[in-house]
Amino acid sequence: MGRRIPQDKKFLQNIEIIDIAEEGKGVGRHDELVLFIEKAIPGDVVEVELQRKKKNFAEGRVTSIVKESPYRIEPFCPHFGVCGGCKWQHMSYEAQLKFKQQYVDNVLSRIGKVDTSSMEDILGSEQTTYYRNKLEFTFSNKRWLTSQDEVVTPETLNALGFHVPGRFDKILDIKHCYLQQDPSNDLRNSIKEFAVANGISFYDLRQHEGALRNLIIRTSSTGEIMVIVVFAYPEEGQIEQLMDFVAQKFPAITSLLYIVNQKRNDTIFDQEIYVYKGRDYIFEEMEGLKFKVGPKSFYQTNSKQAYELYKIAREFADLKGDELVYDLYTGAGTIANFVAKYAKEVVGVEYVPSAIEDAKINSEINGITNTKFYAGDMKDVLTAEFVAEHGKPDVVITDPPRAGMHADVVKRILEMEAPKVVYVSCNAATQARDLEMLSAKYEVARIKPVDMFPQTQHVENVVLLKLKK
Ligand SMILES: C[S@@+](CC[C@H](N)C(=O)[O-])C[C@H]1O[C@@H](n2cnc3c(N)ncnc32)[C@H](O)[C@@H]1O
């Protein structure tokens, strides 16, 4: 990308960081050039080495900090800076919330032309570490080496951890991750140690060979634990050898599963799952409701904050008990089941068929009888005929993926003319784009960002839309 930067224009001094960009980079200016600088935060004054340059903007890295931002703190994780997981750990949590709020405000007003003057304060997460219920680690025989690394041997080149940003084939070996509660760290470290000690090989991401490929750990608010070990090309007896070790060392595991994935990609959605011990699902619990979570099911990764998010969505919907609610992008029907007892009927639509099966089971195990679920691509399922068959909704709750809603879905929402739309989004930029389209018939009544992912730049945002009179 971009043009070669002449040596005398490569280094810039005294750049003041004035904002933070979507991907979490610090924003500065130099003459007409907008600068995006990795690991810089507003309030910093830094010296910069430019790495890429386009006509109006450039990307660079900090070579030294001239003046530290008051928002700067010491990152608590020794992997910070190399691991791509928690990019904002060098900022106080208060500052993280301030910039997330500011970001949502900016994109909604700039892209969505929304009046944000009555936007509510972001809801911070009570837990700012160990808040995730799911982590996926990758095995690799080519560990990412840092400058502090000692002499390496083939054994010490093995890694179990996370991808280094921008490198599909390099894995940072993780010793302790602050994102998931115990026994996550113990599990990962013990499995690695056992595999190395017993000569079970780690995957080669370029050559596509080796026994061990991925490790997925799910913990839950009920205390249940799911462990999925993904093998690629194990030698005879290695699956039993490793799985026996895990089962014996961690008897608390509720669901011990394995997969043999010999495809080029890591996704497990098309893979057969084998149960080694226990059952093939765990339970999550929210407000007395139980949710079955299978190895392929989507469940919000910060369970505690998901509860807060859903309460806000429910409060915005302000249900009286006689409404027909559409829950679009319902996943495993979590929001649908969460609001069901406050509505007459809830109709959920979702792309993934197995998630829809889970959604139905989740209604059943909770004795909920006023929900209906349909699987398929939203733009194909939510047709005029579908609306004629199920009735025009009084409230639409929509929680699309990062790409936002397909234009046909937005058009259908405009046609349905539900008095209220509650739009939950994990990407305020695409939400803003959709809000602009919805402004043909809707006005924004409430906006509340929610922080589901402390230490990262990600932010969730809930918007209440009311049909214009
Ligand atoms: C952000 S998740 C929301 C899930 C759910 N509301 C929850 O809170 O657990 C978005 C969901 O949209 C689904 N999805 C993505 N693209 C879709 C499409 N084109 N049609 C229907 N569903 C889709 C995904 O499978 C995922 O379950």
Element layout with pairings:
Layout: H1 7-10, E1 11-16, E2 19-20, E3 26-30, E4 33-38, E5 45-53, E6 57-67, H2 93-110, E7 134-140, E8 159-163, E9 171-173, H3 184-197, E10 212-219, E11 225-231, H4 238-249, E12 255-260, E13 274-278, E14 282-286, E15 289-293, H5 303-317, E16 324-328, H6 334-339, E17 345-350, H7 353-365, E18 371-375, H8 378-381, H9 384-390, E19 395-398, H10 407-416, E20 420-425, H11 428-438, E21 442-450, E22 460-467
Parallel strand pairs: 4-6, 11-12, 16-17, 16-19, 17-18, 19-20
Antiparallel strand pairs: 1-5, 2-3, 3-4, 5-6, 7-8, 7-10, 8-9, 10-11, 12-13, 14-15, 20-22, 21-22
Helix pairs in contact: 2-11
Task: Profile the largest sheet.
Answer: 7 strands, mixed
How many distinct folded domains? Answer: 3
Percent helix: 10-25%
- What is the residue-mean pLDDT, rounded to a whole number? 94
Binding site for S-adenosyl-L-methionine: 300, 329, 350, 399
InterPro entries: MeTrfase_TrmA_AS, MeTrfase_TrmA_CS, NA-bd_OB-fold, SAM-dependent_MTases_sf, TRAM_dom, U5_MeTrfase_fam
Keywords: Methyltransferase, S-adenosyl-L-methionine, Transferase
Protein name: 23S rRNA (Uracil(1939)-C(5))-methyltransferase RlmD
